[in-house]
Design brief:
Layout lengths: L1 H19 L1 H10 L9 E7 L4 H5 L29 H4 L8 E2 L14 H8 L7 H4 L18 E2 L6 H9 L1 E3 L2 E2 L6 H10 L5 E2 L6 E2 L2 E2 L4 E2 L11 E4 L4 H7 L4 E5 L14 H9 L3 E3 L5 E3 L38 E3 H9 L6 E5 L13 H15 L8 E7 L52 E4 L7 E3 L3 E2 L1 H10 L44
Length: 518
């Protein structure tokens, strides 16, 4: 009996010691979940509103005018499906594609609605971008407004992204899951599902499917003047929770200026929401760092943090028991990463002025954020087991010359126009959810990791839910179900090299202003 009591005492002492060194113990737990690959930490950087051609049209060939950051590709760079030949010089759109100079980083926002993007494809001819996605003159005073949708940047402006592509892996065949703007893109990123919205038919929701940008019901900072919705069904956070795998969505500006608690009054919350941090956007206007309609987990009751509560402690970041419910400020991500407590799966959301979204942001402000983030991550103790994905929510309506494969049909006569002005998006099978025409436009997609193939271009067909599928498979979570696109998603595994540790991709540190290697 005495020995038994002694053993119990020893166990209690060990437990007490582990609790007092919670940062170490949490790091050990978060790194030891069983995975099918050496990737123990996945970081998804969710940027905004860029088509593949808008950033990579002429990759790897840059113009290199005097005075700007030069880009010179490795002679062993593989080819991409970009803009060449007649696509550049005799394009069938009303205007020809044209290069934006680095001095033209700030532009207007294009029309990127669910229907407008379908109209631009014109049944696969891809010749109506000027007609349907160039910005409305009421919102854009640029004298070249009519042709803006045909513009693209090269390696003298999006220099960092081109350098990441040189040293790691990228895809030239990655698509948004459905057509449409930011909220559908973010919902697809975490659930592969835009159906299941309630109310079922309001502005931005058709047949219970989200096609626009209503605000989330489960966010006290949502605009009360806008219609609010919530989503039913499951998301990838629910699957991670079911297996106890640590995760989080980390959005810059999410934490409210006045620390809130469960007892905070509605008036207190409103004051905090109204005074949340803001920065000057590329359009010369102040904008909040955080907006609810691009925080997709706030649409689901199971994964929402309506009051924006901070984590109970640094050691609980990413864990199920914490009051923040996996929804955090970006500062919490760095607290976790720097202490060795990086969650297994992390979604990162930049402040609005650094997301790359035209109008609010631009490629140079975006580059500052991306380079700072990746330089920092490569110095964390978890880097050797980490993969970073850079992806985008939608194309913003920028021209892209590749017709997406249509894996989901929809025949809503009011909103579907894929097959021309009076056409539909095929014909949905009986029981299939409507208003999910997809895949949508092609988007940039890069993987930065010690395990990424070097200077590699993947041509496999993938989409936003391929990220979900990697998470599901890597941590053995199963599928979301309910017609989520994850069951159709192509694999991103081809972009990794897991066969040897002798040829891992080396770290790459860039200058956050020029995008050039330090």
């Amino acid at each position: 009996m005495k020995n038994a009591l002694t053993n119990v005492a020893i166990v209690l002492i060990i437990i007490s010691f582990l609790s007092s060194t919670s940062l170490v113990s949490a790091a050990a737990v978060s790194s030891n979940f069983s995975t099918i690959t050496p990737i123990k930490h996945l970081v998804i950087i969710a940027q905004e509103n860029v088509s593949f051609d808008h950033y990579f049209a002429t990759y790897p060939n840059a113009t290199n005018p005097p005075g700007g950051p030069p880009f010179h590709a490795s002679p062993h760079t593989p080819s991409v499906n970009g803009l060449t030949g007649v696509l550049l010089t005799n394009n069938t759109n009303s205007y020809q594609p044209f290069r934006f100079d680095r001095s033209q980083a700030a532009t207007c926002d294009m029309n990127h609605s669910y229907t407008a993007e379908q109209n631009a494809t014109n049944g696969g001819l891809l010749d109506k971008f000027v007609n349907y996605t160039s910005p409305n003159k009421a919102f854009c005073k640029d004298p070249n407004r009519a042709k803006l949708a045909m513009g693209y940047y090269d390696g003298n402006t999006v220099t960092a992204l081109w350098n990441y592509a040189q040293h790691f892996a990228m895809s030239d065949n990655f698509f948004s899951t459905t057509f449409g703007p930011s909220t559908p893109g973010h919902l697809n990123l975490i659930s592969g599902q835009t159906h299941g919205a309630m109310p079922t038919n309001i502005k931005g929701v058709v047949n219970s499917t989200v096609i626009a940008n209503p605000d989330p019901l489960y966010d006290k900072c949502s605009d009360p003047a806008r219609l609010l919705i919530n989503m039913s069904g499951a998301n990838i956070g629910d699957l991670l929770n079911s297996k106890g795998v640590t995760w989080g969505w980390f959005a810059d500006g999410f934490r409210l200026p006045n620390k809130t608690s469960l007892s905070s009054s509605s008036s207190d919350i409103k004051v905090s929401c109204d005074s949340r941090p803001e920065h000057l956007g590329s359009d010369g206007k102040m904008s909040k760092d955080y907006y609810p309609d691009v925080e997709p987990f706030q649409y689901y009751k199971s994964t929402a943090n309506p009051l924006h509560l901070p984590p109970t402690s640094n050691s609980t970041i990413g864990h199920n028991s914490d009051q923040a419910n996996h929804q955090y400020d970006l500062v919490d991500f760095w607290t976790a990463a720097d202490s060795g407590n990086l969650p297994s799966v992390s979604f990162i959301k930049a402040a609005n002025y650094q997301q790359g979204h035209p109008g609010l942001s631009d490629p140079l402000k975006e580059q500052t954020f991306l380079v700072n983030t990746l330089n920092h991550l490569q110095r964390t103790p978890q880097w050797n087991s980490t993969a970073v994905i850079i992806t985008y929510d939608d194309s913003d309506g920028w021209y892209d010359h590749v017709m997406p494969p249509i894996v989901s049909q929809s025949n809503d006569p009011r909103y579907d126009r894929l097959l021309g002005k009076d056409g539909l998006c095929g014909r949905a099978l009986p029981g299939a959810y409507q208003d999910r025409c997809g895949y949508g436009p092609r988007l940039p997609f890069l993987i930065i990791s010690p395990y990424a193939k070097v200077n590699y271009v993947d041509h496999s067909v993938t989409d936003q839910t391929s990220i979900i599928r990697f998470i599901e498979d890597n941590w053995n979570l199963g599928r979301i179900g309910n017609q989520s696109f994850d069951v159709k998603a192509g694999s991103i595994l081809n972009m990794f090299n897991f066969t040897t540790t002798n040829h891992q991709a080396p770290k790459l540190f860039l200058d956050n202003s020029t995008g050039l290697e330090k």
